[in-house]
Amino acid sequence: MDFPKKKIDTYQLSPSSLTPRSYFPMKASSSTERILNEVQQMKKLQRSDPLVSKNQNSLKYLKLAPIQPFNDSQEISSQINSKSRRNYKLQGIHPINITKNCVSRCAYISQKGSENKIPHDNNQDSILFQTKLNSQAYQFLFGVFDGHGSYGHLVSNFIKKTINLSIPRCLPEAQENDMINFLCQSIDQAINDLNTSNIDINISGSTLCLIMISGPQIVCASIGDSRCIIGKFIETWDYEILSIEHKPTVYDEVQRIEQAGGLVSVAPNIRNKTQGMLRVWSDDSDIPGLAMTRSIGDKLMKNIGVIDKCDITKHKITNEDKFAILATDGVWDVLSNEDAVRIVAKYWKEGKSELACKGLADAATKKWEECGVRVDDISLVVVFLHAKDY
């Protein structure tokens, strides 16, 4: 289904879980007269925007009231459908609305895949979800890592933890070049540490897709086929792919593989060569095909052109940018970019990033179940954006 070409209404971001009680705590010992006086004083305050109604869900209304400091790292965790066979891990935050901050809400979800409705032993995906880098409320670091092979879950988790340990090296007032240097150095350090670790990475590895947000700047680093897109609204909903994917369908990637002696083809046991997923193969029949042309780990594939060099892209947040979606191929293999934007846009209008995560994960799970008996691990991060005037 194509996107509509006509304009539709835009909506204000308004975290629904925030209540006036969080902002106007009244001590039990306060007298009735004092409380009434406080209420009368609040009513006399002038609002900067007369179009903003006194709705408890209105972020602007809450900001304009004489509030006590709001903890921008406040987190909301919830277990979704505890009786479900899917193992959800869901979390959202509500950063303080300061001048430099362009993130209004964000959340993530990660769920284990299954085979014939029997959950896999391990969720091979890992998620990095960090706010307030170096105590800066406008700096964020998000990442998804998709492991593969017998020890893929160990690889993805190792990379996530190692990069997380690098955060103190990030400059508090990081500019674009600082962000690029930080991501590249952190990834290189993680790869070097993995190569000298005790994890067997001969035929196990992981993808990587990271975004760092500092004020209005986004820098993305990617290795493999995990993806980040920006949901945009101009005259209609649209998207921009922020990350660079490394797959056997990309000409330059295939050229490098073939020049190094590798082979790009579908699985040998598939008779109809027009069907099936392209993979990278080695002459060694004991080495399974790889669905990406770059990865972290996969030591035995490095001599046939599979590299672990990241690609960097950058983006400045504008008023058109409404949210970012960062996800593993458990989402992208079954949902198009348009599908993902349409699903998240519904919850963006309601200001519910945590429900956007669940809605997207549920849609991907349903698609997998319609296609066969296997459901891949599904992990994603949703970030609601709010451009400022700079």
Automatic annotation (TrEMBL):
Bilayer topology term: Peripheral membrane protein
Single GO molecular function: protein serine/threonine phosphatase activity
Annotated keywords: Hydrolase, Membrane, Metal-binding, Protein phosphatase
Subcellular location: Membrane
Coiled coil ranges: none
InterPro entries found in the cross-reference section: PP2C, PP2C_BS, PPM-type-like_dom_sf, PPM-type_phosphatase-like_dom
Any one GO CC term of the record: membrane
SMART domains reported for this sequence: PP2Cc
PPM-type phosphatase domain sequence ranges: 105-385
Family, per entry: Belongs to the PP2C family.
PANTHER family in the record: PROTEIN PHOSPHATASE
Annotated protein name in UniProt: PPM-type phosphatase domain-containing protein
Species, as recorded: Stentor coeruleus
